[in-house]
Amino acid sequence: MTQYDRPASTLPPYSSLQPLEGVRILSLALNLPGPAALWRCAGMGAQCRKIEPRAADRHDGLPERTADPMERYSAQAYDAMHHGIDVLQMDLKSETGQQQLHEVLAGTDVLLTSFRPGALAKLGLAWERLQALHPHLSMVRILGSTGPDADIPGHDLTYQAEAGLVQSLQMPPSLFADMAGALMASEAVLQCVLASRRSGHGLLHEVGLAQAAHWLALPWQWGLTQPHGDVGGAHAGYRIYPCADGIIAVAALEPHFAQRLCAAAGMGEAAVDMRSPATHEAIAGFMRIHSCQQLQALAEQHDIPMHPLAQ
């Protein structure tokens, strides 16, 4: 078993309140959602450990420090998420590795995994068996999807596409399903800890990345972010406009912000129909002839929510 020394990094910001102080979490989860969830739990005061397969067990000849693919995708991301985490390496398919695993589980409150149910069963980590061996232990299982599709392979991109978040040939700017799943998994840890303290026994909670993507897609499904929606471009005060040297994100959605925007754009103090083509054209024309610096100054002067992005 090896513990790696990590470069300094910053955990997600939290207040001095540490709701998971004293809670012992063990993670077997690789890639992004599991480590991101564990990172958040560490930021809430939990004692966090992670077990990875031994790098030598990969049989792919790669020289990475760890057996977690995330280190290969982005060493920066891996190091950030594992700062302060006690990382151990075990061969969980061996008798010795299984013995070591259950020794650790005996002193663990919550087990975090990201394997498909079939793979968990092969490792002897089916929920029923864990309950029998460690009745105090709770388990948070991160899956591609909960329910009958749990063993179907997928990744962030396919879950986003299924939820309607992929709109073109452009790749999404973030791994929304993975990061939302990480948030849900850290929330699930809190739920298990609270409920277990009341019941006196461990609980099982499943988090589906597909379901996380569908949660993020609800504003689109409700029509809010579709082209006819006020936050989808139909409202002239909530749009992205080209300006003289870049683009500017304008979020003057509320009536008082919209009125200030229209007044700054020379449209007078009277209420304006923010959905009319004339309003869209007038604000677009105003933005087009001003620089990012000028618009930033105007936003600060008139208290208008805008953010310029210079080219």
UniProtKB/TrEMBL annotation:
Keyword tags: Transferase
GO MF term list: transferase activity
Coiled-coil stretches: none
Claim: Transferase is one of the keywords in the record: yes
Protein name, UniProt field: CoA transferase
